[in-house]
Amino acid sequence: EVLAEISSSSAAGNSGAMKRAISSGGSVPAGDAVAVPNCYFGKFMLSLLDLFQSDLQLLEDRGSFIIRQLCVLLSAEDIYQSLSEILLGREDLRFAAHMVQTLNTILLTSTELFELRNQLKDLNTKESCSLFCCLYRSWCHNPVATISLCLLTQNYEHTCSLLHLFSDMEVTVEFLTEIDKLVQLIESPIFTYLRLQLLDSPQQSYLVKSLYGLLMLLPQSEAFHTLRTRLACLPHPSLQQMDTGTTIRRTADNSSAERCKSEINFQELLEHFQKVQESHKKAKPAARLSQVLRLSGSVDSGHQA
């Protein structure tokens, strides 16, 4: 039904390949590219999100596969930007948070999004900075996903600012589980560059502080001990004095990225994060009441039966 929106256009190229692949559970051949007009693309992405929202089981079972295949067929950047913009207007905050978590996991772990990860990691163009800001605004529906996006994009100072706000949030099992998964990702090949930056700990003080912030949020679990062990591997201060020349060269290499980042209004992003989280805080009592009423209705139906 969703795919019919896009395949109905004669300009949709090889969309039949996409439809067959997603419907059958197979993958799309590398040579099958799809050219999609903007109007059909927007309608398609909107319909896809509507479908996921109406069928959460589909999102759980096939959501990751569908999105990854779309990123192969179309532009991963366009897919993520479009979904992010649509999620900003969603009134169902719980679904928005769930969808952001799904998109974030795909972004950080899928081989299909390797190029997009590199683009976001460097943030050395206006386009990549614009994409970061777009994703950030919808990623705010999920605090831990927002932290992981900032770590991916090497915005460590902003990560510290976000972690300070976590003290006012409700710490749930789900919240701690997400931090646990983030620690596992930090230990994965995806974040190799981040771990290597710990060799320059005096120059990366915000990174070190961010990791310690995550450590303080965790109970003394396996993830806690994993992260503490990593932080215990920070080089001795005497070794840092031997690396001055390398640091200067690295600073020069990062100058273009710093120029682009300087145009990002991080204070405005931080205020947006607080606003979105306040909306979630206000919506929670109503959501819990609705859940209690549903459970109560189920119990009553069972007694009547």
Automatic annotation (TrEMBL):
Residues 57-233 form the Vacuolar protein 14 C-terminal Fig4-binding domain. GO terms for biological process: phosphatidylinositol biosynthetic process. InterPro entries: Vac14, VAC14_Fig4p-bd. One of its GO terms (cellular component) is endosome membrane. It is found in: Endomembrane system. Keywords: Membrane, Repeat. Pfam families: Vac14_Fig4_bd. It comes from the Eukaryota. This is Putative vacuolar 14 c-terminal fig4p binding protein. It comes from Rhipicephalus pulchellus. The lineage of its organism: Eukaryota, Metazoa, Ecdysozoa, Arthropoda, Chelicerata.
